[in-house]
Each structure stands twice: as structure tokens, then as C-alpha cells.
Write a structure and sequence with these properties.
Number of strands: 2
Number of helices: 22
Oligomer: single chain
Distance between the termini: 24 Å
Largest sheet: 2 strands, antiparallel
Strand content: under 5%
């Protein structure tokens, strides 16, 4: 198979896996998707009481306290599918009204806030619309984006001299052996930041020989992705800035200071559109293009510390970010700990990642970690799982993979199996009592799928014949397995056609 064939198969494989693990979490970004898609508006009026991050400001209505990038990107598949979503939504509402049956909202879940949320959504007749919106934005936005990042990971390792086969395994381990699987399950801006940073980094680095893109195009495109990091989350500004400095150093090294500085401005040119969109959103939403959405949020716990809960770095928070048993980076992604040892390979001269790129990734890791050690809301991650440090996972994995291939097999294989077990357990159960408690549930309760579990708990409304039943995830996993088997065994239709023609001529 050619490299292109591997890329297509990796993309489709990861897309199937990510879509299979779709979670029904309806997050704050979804409200903005619907508002933009339905009304071409940033206002979230009418949803104020459905999410704690949605608040009302004087003269500007309701908005949420996050950057709009993830919603702006996810609105594209929503707009395409909106006619179908609206048709199904209207049909269901008409059927309910015609039946005359009392509307129920039975949700068998131990979390009272989720039960109350479902009750309100069901009573307002928004349950079908919200459910389909979550499905569309995950399957046709998050899943393909993460699958594309796996293809980029594969390409990087191929360009650094590894075989197609080994690079494929490294790409698939990235997809299922890191929290990428967990966070791809629903619309998530933190992972988007990491994916866009990966794209920008590879464009600047150019670890490949030959390209259809000239230097100006590469830098402008890298700037666009760097700007999208900021548009998705203000923490993305750290990656945007460090990648810009990296791009500047590359051009200065190649062309001298004056010419290199001028050439690096193409990166700044690429930033213009996403930065403009962020300023436009903040101006339209709050009346000022410069203050972040968090500036307008009403007082919450820890907001009194520093600026809106952002103070000085704290070792306690840094330790939580790295090692907390519920969401710590090196607990939920043990493979990434290998990245810390990449300088050892540099000293030995056996690292497939050059020293400058290794140094940059480690600096990004430390900068993002230290930044979030200043953010008091880090303490809330127990409720959602790893979140803030997702922005560094794709880049960190490049270093981790470079170390992984140098390990002895007796250590490498068990480590990979353990990492996949951790990642898959979290993606299936999505509860946060702790990583090892979640893994124990897999052995006690068997395989699960998030969307299937939600359907079972809401069966009284949508599938009464399933009420009180535990639906097995194995048939759906087997179906996905058959699809993946087909993806890797079917020959190229074009090659099959050529072979048939040649055999006929012979």
C-alpha cells in the first residue's frame, strides 16, 4: 500500500472508533452552535437556566463564558444537517401533541443535576433537537478532526524515517491509547486547540521533503491554525505565541534576522481572520472587543483569587494537573510520561525528533501546565475528567512515540496495553471516581458505550421495550470491528479495476 492508502484507512478507522464512542453530553458550546445556525446570532437568550456557564449581561442578553471557536467550526455540519434535524424535531413534537399523553421525563441517573436538566429540556420539547445536534457535531466535526490528527501523527513518523506499519500502529495508539478518545466523544474546545496546534507545528517544522505549498502559504496556513487555537480558548494564545516564535527562529536561522523576520510575518498574516472573529464575537456579545468572556461572568467560587480566578502559579494545582487520580495528565495518559525522557534520546543521538522541535514541545508542555496552575477552576476537573491539558496531548505524543519505539519489547507492549485499557475505560464509562475505579467497572460490568447507556436510562420515553434492560454494547462493537476489518482488507477499487482490465487483455 502507498502512504496515501494508509492515511485514508487510518482516517476511516479512527472515525469509526470515535463515532462509536459518541457521548450525549450537551455542553455550553452546543447552545452557541444552535444560536448561530438557527438565528445567526451569538445570543443565548432562553437557555439561561439550562447551563451554569450561561449568564446575562445588561444590554447584551445571554452568553456563555468561553471562546466561540469550537461552536463556529461545529456550526458547519449543523447547518448542513439542520433541515433534517428540524424535520425530525417537528415531527416528534406534533406526534406528542396529537397523542395527548402526559409528557414524562424519566432519567435513571444518580446525578441530580443531569436529571433536572433532562426534565427541563424534555418539558420544553428540546430533547430531540439537542440530541441530534450533539450527534451531528460529534460525528461530523469532532470525530473527523481527531481522525485527521491521527493521520498527521502517522505522517510525522513516516517522514522521520519509520515504516508505514510502525507509523500506523503509533497513530492508532494515539487515537485509542490517549485521552483523545475520551474527549472526542463530544464537542470540546480544549482538544481542538491541541489539534490545531499540531497542524500549525507540522506546517512550520516541515519534516517532509518537497511540498506543493511554498513558504508563504505554509506560514499563513500555520498562522490560521495558530489563530484558531486562540479563537477556541484563551489558553490557545500560549501555543499561538510559542509557535510564532518558533516560526520566526526557523526563518532567521535560514535567512538572517532582517529577511527572516519579514518572512515570518506571513504567520502573523494568517492570524488576522481568527483574531478578528474573536474580537467581533466579543464586541457583539459584550460591547468590547478586547475583554475575554470570563471578564463578564458573575461571581463564582474562587473568582476572588487574582483576576476572575486566575492568580499566581500553585504547586498544588500543578500536581493535580499532572498526577490527580481522577484527571491528572500522566494518570489518564501514562504514555505521555515517556515524552519527559526524550532529552535522554537527544543525548544519545537516537531521537527521531530534532533537538529544536523537542525543546519547543517541552516548553509548550511546561508553559501550558504552569498557566493552568494559576487557574483555580482546575479544581473542577474532577467533574469532567482531563480537560485543560488536552491542548498539549497531540504534540506531547510525538515525543512519547519517539521514546516508545526505543523501549524493549517486554516493557513496551504491556505499557501500550495498559494505556489503551485506561483510555478505553474512561471513554466507555465517563465517570470520574478515579481511573482505577473506572477500569474496575469494566471488569465487573463489561463493555459499555456512552450513548447506549444514556438511551437505556431514558428508555421510558424513547424505547419502552428496553426499560429495565441492560443493552449489550458488543453487537455494536462487533459491527464496528467488521467495518474496520473491511477498511484494512478491501483493495483499492481503482487498482482492482486496472487489474481486471489487464487480466482481460491478457
Amino acid at each position: 500500500m502507498t502512504a496515501g492508502s494508509y492515511r485514508v484507512r487510518i482516517f476511516l478507522t479512527c472515525w469509526v472508533i470515535f463515532a462509536l464512542h459518541f457521548a450525549t453530553d450537551f455542553v455550553r458550546e452546543h447552545y452557541l452552535v444552535i444560536s448561530i445556525g438557527d438565528n445567526f446570532s451569538f445570543q443565548l437568550d432562553g437557555y439561561e437556566d439550562l447551563h451554569p456557564d450561561i449568564f446575562v449581561t445588561e444590554n447584551h442578553g445571554a452568553h456563555h463564558g468561553a471562546n466561540p471557536g469550537a461552536s463556529m467550526i461545529a456550526v458547519l455540519p449543523y447547518l448542513i444537517s439542520r433541515p433534517l434535524i428540524d424535520a425530525v424535531h417537528s415531527r416528534v413534537l406534533e406526534s406528542r401533541q396529537a397523542s395527548g399523553v402526559e409528557i414524562t421525563a424519566i432519567y435513571d441517573d444518580p446525578r441530580p443535576m443531569r436529571v433536572e436538566f433532562y426534565r427541563q429540556v424534555r418539558e420544553r420539547g428540546l430533547d430531540i433537537k439537542f440530541g441530534l445536534t450533539g450527534f451531528v457535531t460529534q460525528v461530523f466535526c469532532m470525530a473527523p478532526l481527531s481522525a485527521l490528527s491521527a493521520v498527521v501523527i502517522f505522517s510525522v513518523f513516516v517522514w522521520r524515517g519509520l515504516t508505514f506499519r510502525l507509523s500506523t500502529w503509533l497513530a492508532l495508539i494515539y487515537a485509542v491509547g490517549t485521552p483523545v478518545l475520551f474527549r472526542t466523544a463530544f464537542l470540546n474546545q480544549n482538544l481542538m486547540v491541541g489539534i490545531f496546534a499540531l497542524f500549525a507545528f507540522v506546517l512550520l517544522w516541515k519534516p517532509y521533503s518537497g511540498s506543493r505549498l511554498d513558504m508563504k502559504s505554509r506560514y499563513m496556513l500555520a498562522g490560521l491554525f495558530g489563530g484558531l487555537c486562540l479563537l477556541c480558548d484563551y489558553s490557545g494564545g500560549i501555543l499561538m505565541a510559542l509557535l510564532g516564535i518558533y516560526g520566526l527562529l526557523l526563518r532567521v536561522d535560514a535567512e538572517g534576522f532582517s529577511r527572516g523576520f519579514i518572512q515570518s510575518l506571513w504567520y502573523a498574516a494568517g492570524l488576522l481572520m481568527p483574531v478578528f472573529l474573536l474580537g467581533l464575537y466579543q464586541y457583539q456579545s459584550f460591547g468590547n472587543p478586547f475583554y475575554p468572556p470570563q471578564h463578564y461572568m458573575p461571581p463564582v467560587q474562587w473568582v476572588e483569587i487574582g483576576y476572575q480566578g486566575v492568580g499566581m502559579p500553585q504547586w498544588e494545582l500543578l500536581n493535580m494537573l499532572w498526577f490527580d487520580h481522577r484527571f491528572g495528565l500522566f494518570v489518564v495518559a501514562p504514555l505521555l510520561l515517556l515524552a519527559v525522557f526524550s532529552p535522554v534520546l537527544q543525548i544519545r543521538g537516537s531521537n527521531i525528533v530534532p533537538w529544536r522541535e523537542t525543546f519547543l514541545i517541552l516548553v509548550i508542555f511546561l508553559a501550558v501546565s504552569v498557566f493552568f496552575s494559576t487557574v483555580q477552576y482546575t479544581r473542577l476537573q474532577w467533574n469532567t475528567g482531563i480537560r485543560y491539558l488536552m491542548a498539549i496531548v497531540p504534540l506531547m505524543y510525538i515525543l512519547a512515540g519517539a521514546v516508545l519505539i526505543r523501549l524493549p519489547q517486554w516493557f513496551m507492549y504491556p505499557l501500550v496495553v495498559f494505556a489503551v485499557a485506561v483510555s478505553w475505560s474512561l471513554a466507555m464509562f465517563r465517570s470520574q471516581p478515579g481511573v482505577f475505579e473506572t477500569m474496575t467497572r469494566v471488569f465487573l460490568e463489561g463493555f459499555q458505550l456512552p450513548w447506549l447507556g444514556t438511551l437505556s436510562r431514558m428508555a421510558a420515553q424513547y424505547a419502552p421495550f428496553l426499560e429495565g434492560q441492560k443493552v449489550s454494547a458488543l453487537p455494536f462493537m462487533m459491527l464496528a470491528g467488521i467495518l474496520i476489518y473491511g477498511i484494512w482488507t478491501i483493495r483499492s477499487p481503482r487498482k482492482s479495476l486496472y487489474k481486471s482490465i489487464n487480466e482481460t487483455r491478457g
